[in-house]
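Practice set, problem 2.
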Amino acid sequence: MAGNNFGGEMRIRGSSGDAYTLRAAVTMNTAGLSTEAVRNQNGLNSYVATLRAPSAELTLEDEGQNMDDILRAGSQDIYIVEEFSGVTHVFVSGRITGDAQVNRENGELSGLMIQSDSYRRITG
């Protein structure tokens, strides 16, 4: 069902059973590396690859979670399920990282991301 379907209701949960309410878009960086061109003095480019953790930026609803517990939790598989498209994103051996910030005007919890050892996309 994935195809050109995006958006709709999305859910997040860890293999520990903890689930959180997503508030806004999830931005994913699923590649295990980034590359960039470096210009040499002879006018030609060289290319540098930098390894990085597959990740996803999260915006959650503040539900009174104990952020110390969330940020101290050990590695686990973290699932983001897109109900509309039928796609499941699995961040394998991942952790929630970042600097949690709560906007008390609208209940938005931001500054968090998932970082994992690897990433899998399951369709259907």
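Problem 2, part (b): a different protein.
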Amino acid sequence: MNIRIELNDVSEVLNKFNSDMINQELDDYIISFCENKFFRKKSISLEVYGIKSSKDREIFQDMIHNHYKNKVNFYSKLDKFDDYYRLCLLILGILAILLSENFVSFLSELFLIAGWVVIWEIVYDVIFNEIRRKRKENIYKKLANSDIIFIDK
């Protein structure tokens, strides 16, 4: 599936505050197009209109690929950190449930409820947040390896 991008100049791609980053509006356009439910399993290619010089084409291609490779790296580091965080919370939840056996009435109920709430939060994070993050990471991987086709008007 192709994403059509019409530009007048390569400067439209660059962020006006940092020339090492792509424009947020362009990024939002590409990502919103990719999040279409029919688009997930297909390969991605970008059709770029309006960039004529080979130097500008190379700059555009490097900017797009590097931007999405950086996002893939960020998400993989975030997943690694999140796994450690969930493991610590799981241990904490199990300890709270085990401690609930040693106390009487009020403290017992408090530790039991706290332990199950922590474990539920881990399950919720895995089921909902991690799946959403993996979907975005897959889109970023496809964009980092996407074909960029330059078309002269």
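Answer key, part (b): Residues 54-100 form the longest helix (47 residues). Strands lie at 2-6, 45-49, 147-151.
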